[in-house]
Design brief:
binds asparagine, 36% helix, 16 strands, binds zinc ion, 2 domains, 332 residues
């Protein structure tokens, strides 16, 4: 989306992008005037507080390399801006809590810290520099994932354990994919992989696969009665799989150069409705029908209600939602 920006930055993953910055005296600050003043801080390997606000003297930020401290700031500031824009432009949501208030971002957390996280307590997100401090967890889909934890907390507030925890995690992966497709950056086009730019395993594999979640070695592809006892980053698998199937349909497919093959439970066929419609259904389900205790059966009901609202009960789109749940062994 076109916006008025003053700065330009080169991130490690986003490429060269516009940045919202603020001129204070003769120094530019990584404070985004177009997104409620969202600030991006350099924790400088610390693990508490806000460190220092990123600043620059010529409004040209980062150089694409992790050795330049600003580079991670560019990636996470752009990720927050893109996610802010997505929720506002697509759903009319004015910020994470829909109250027009910006969160803030902290880069360079700890040393060789291989994670990123959202915290409701500070209303902020934090990013580690990854293995060897050279594979930062700062990619666009990671930023959208973390920021979407804030949206979930402000809406359905899905409890972060058991099946609701898996749905909480899947919600973050779903909107991570949606934001990535919405931006469709040349350096990071849309895909149904999570964290593919980071090379967290050193062999080119992503953190998670939405078309066939079990490809990560731990995630579940379909619902079963034991799903609630696995880690929430693995019990998210069936809902991620549901979202992929609803968006793209069953069968092999290549999108933006990535090949997918998504086997379904009992061979249930699904006709894809496109990621824009699938995300709109999940957003309405999350913000209107899901509650803190929603489980997979409840998510099915919530998305069917959302699909009925948006597209009509028993419309082809509504029926595709039912088929996609059946394809991960939920319902009917
Ligand atoms: N990066 C992880 C996540 O957002 C942190 C966590 O385990 N909560 O899910
Ligand atoms: Zn998460």
């Amino acid at each position: 989306a076109e916006k008025v920006h003053t700065g330009t930055g080169t991130g490690q993953y986003v490429g060269t992008v516009p940045l919202g910055t603020t001129l204070s005296g003769s120094t530019y600050q990584l404070t985004d005037p177009d997104r409620a003043g969202h600030k991006t801080y350099d924790l400088n390997q610390g693990t508490s507080g806000t460190g220092t606000l990123f600043t620059d003297d010529n409004d040209v930020w980062g150089n694409g390399l992790p050795s330049n401290r600003q580079t991670a700031g560019v990636d996470v500031a752009f990720g927050a801006a893109a996610t802010w824009d997505y929720y506002k432009e697509v759903y009319g949501r004015n910020g994470i809590r829909n109250d027009g208030v910006a969160a803030y971002s902290r880069a360079h957390y700890g040393s060789s810290y291989v994670n990123a996280f959202w915290q409701d307590s500070c209303f902020c997100m934090t990013y580690g520099d990854g293995s060897g401090n050279t594979h930062p967890l700062t990619a666009l889909d990671v930023a959208a994932h973390e920021m979407s934890h804030g949206v979930t907390a402000a809406t359905a507030n899905l409890t972060y354990s058991g099946e609701s925890g898996g749905l909480n995690e899947a919600t973050s992966d779903i909107f991570a994919a949606a934001v990535e497709f919405y931006e469709n950056l040349p350096a990071d086009p849309g895909d149904y992989l999570v964290g593919e730019k980071i090379d967290i395993n050193g062999n080119g594999t992503p953190l998670r696969y939405m078309d066939k979640p079990s490809k990560d070695g731990s995630s579940r592809d379909s619902w079963s009665s034991t799903l609630g006892s696995v880690d929430v980053h693995y019990s998210s698998g069936p809902a991620n799989h549901f979202f992929y199937l609803l968006s793209e349909g069953s069968g092999a497919k290549t999108i933006n150069g990535v090949s997918y093959d998504s086997p379904t439970y009992d061979g249930q066929a699904v006709t894809g409705i496109g990621i824009t419609n699938a995300a709109a259904i999940w957003y309405r389900a999350l913000t209107t029908y899901m509650t803190s205790s929603t489980n997979y059966a409840g998510a099915r009901t919530a998305t069917l209600s959302a699909a009925a609202d948006l597209f009509g009960a028993y419309s082809p789109t509504y029926l595709a939602v039912a088929d996609a749940w059946a394809a991960i062994n939920v319902g009917s």
